[in-house]
Specification:
Blueprint: H1 5-14, E1 23-25, H2 28-40, E2 46-50, E3 63-66, H3 69-80, E4 83-84, E5 87-88, E6 92-96, E7 100-111, E8 116-122, H4 129-135, E9 140-144, H5 153-162, H6 169-187, E10 189-204, E11 207-214, E12 218-221, H7 243-250, E13 254-257, E14 262-266, H8 269-281, E15 288-291, H9 298-309, E16 316-323, H10 328-341, E17 348-354, H11 357-366, E18 370-371, H12 375-390
Parallel strand pairs: 14-16, 16-17, 17-18
Antiparallel strand pairs: 1-6, 2-3, 2-6, 4-5, 7-8, 7-10, 8-9, 10-11, 10-12, 13-15
Helix pairs in contact: 2-3, 5-6, 9-10, 10-11
The structure holds guanosine-5'-diphosphate and manganese (II) ion.
């Protein structure tokens, strides 16, 4: 689950990381009021940032500075009228603008290969890390936290040296690096990214001071771990959620959109992946990964069908059910029901084996469904049907 920058900043702040203050506004007038407060508290300018769950807001014009309440209102109004990568901006973050001396990248991911939290740092801050990884992979430095001991200070110092940080910033960097790892662990995050982590200049009683601050924050939470964090569920941004994802979650269906034209409905994650492989081998491309889970009843089958058909790229549907706990006749009834209601006519090939397969076969025959005995046959038929529907390519 992705969460907005403002919420990610709350999580970082709760772990003791240096995050500048902020407010969230849904209207330009509210943004003006927030700006007024920060300016009155001593900020030279305010920063106004689109809150959308995509990166590259800066490049898209969704991060702007303003020097007065009136300008803040005008800028916020403009950002609130924008779409960034197709997503309408519904709220903005307002905060005191930092004076940036230098930007760095610092992020942690759960690395499946090493089965550890890996911390990455780069002196190429502010740029999307994917771009750095492509153009200059050697500019990204990594250390892995020990599963029991966590991130050790010397590891964090090594990262700091690698990105050219020294002197007074070293201690801050170590604290921030450890805080990011702590954030990963505290909330079962898949990703915690601070980009930019910046050296900022502030004027204090003794002149200018420079320190590190987290100017942006991105946190992705592990959906499977959310039951352990009921308080984090409320950070889900329903404004931005794909309705298909919400429906899939409601029915306990694992559903991931892909680019192909063959909609797949399968029970079991392993079988779903096998089915996708066989669709590929038959010359087609799956439109989705979909696991209806064990013991799916007719209503879940109907919901899965709606999800598949909501994708306009789908030209054929392949249903592959291996009945164990799931009863074949239940699935067949669900399919018959779903087809009766579907708004779009799409060829469907059904393979059901296992528990109550005979009853399923009888129901499907009576309803004139196209069936297949083996998975290879089902995949071949589905690919052929999709080809016919598109006049060539599947
Ligand atoms: P992103 O583009 O979605 O990653 O949004 P960021 O929050 O990272 O902002 C993009 C860029 O805007 C940063 O890399 C900074 O250069 C700039 N920026 C963000 N916050 C501030 C700020 O407080 N002061 C100044 N001067 N620039 C900022
Ligand atoms: Mn950023």
């Amino acid at each position: 689950m992705k969460i907005q920058e403002a919420d990610a900043k709350s999580l970082l702040a709760a772990q003791g990381l240096p995050v500048p203050p902020w407010a969230v506004a849904r209207t330009a007038v509210d943004a003006r009021a927030a700006a007024e407060r920060f300016l009155a508290a001593g900020a030279g300018r305010v920063v106004i940032k689109a809150q959308v769950l995509v990166g590259g807001r800066g490049k898209a014009g969704g991060v702007r500075l303003a020097g007065s309440p009136a300008e803040a209102e005008e800028v916020a109004g403009r950002i609130l009228g924008m779409q960034i990568k197709g997503i309408p901006v519904r709220k903005v973050l307002v905060g005191p603008a930092a004076v940036i001396v230098k930007e760095f990248y610092l992020g942690a991911i759960l690395d499946r290969a090493s089965r550890r939290i890996v911390l990455m740092a780069s002196a190429e801050g502010g740029v999307e890390i994917e771009e750095v990884a492509k153009a200059t992979p050697e500019a990204i430095h990594r250390v892995a936290a020990h599963p029991l001991l966590g991130l050790l200070d010397w590891q964090a110092r090594e990262l700091a040296f690698a990105v050219g940080l020294a002197g007074p910033h070293l201690r801050d960097f170590v604290r921030i690096a450890r805080g990011i790892v702590a954030t990963m662990r505290a909330y079962d995050a898949d990703l915690v990214e601070v980009n930019p982590l910046a050296i900022i200049r502030e004027s204090g009683p003794e002149g200018h001071v420079e320190r590190l601050a987290c100017l942006d924050a991105k946190v992705t939470l592990d959906d499977s771990a959310l039951p352990r964090h009921p308080d984090l569920e409320k950070l889900r941004d329903l404004d931005e959620e794909d309705p298909a994802d919400a429906e899939a979650r409601h029915y306990d269906i694992s559903f991931i959109h892909l680019d192909g034209s063959i909609g797949c409905m399968v029970n079991g994650a392993g079988l779903a992946m096998t089915t996708m492989d066989l669709v590929n081998r038959a010359g087609g491309a799956p439109a989705n990964f979909l696991d209806i889970g064990g013991g799916a009843k007719a209503d879940r089958v109907s919901a899965a069908m709606r999800l598949i058909l909501a994708d306009p790229k789908v030209r054929a549907i392949l249903v592959n059910i291996f009945g164990g706990i799931t009863r074949g006749d239940e699935v067949a009834r669900g399919l018959i029901d779903a087809r009766a209601r579907q708004e779009r006519e799409v060829p469907m090939v059904v393979r059901i084996v296992g528990t109550n397969a005979e009853e399923a076969a009888r129901l499907l025959r009576e309803a004139a469904f196209e069936t297949a005995a083996t998975l290879d046959e089902a995949a071949a038929k589905a690919v052929a049907a999709a080809r016919q529907a598109t006049g060539g390519a599947a």
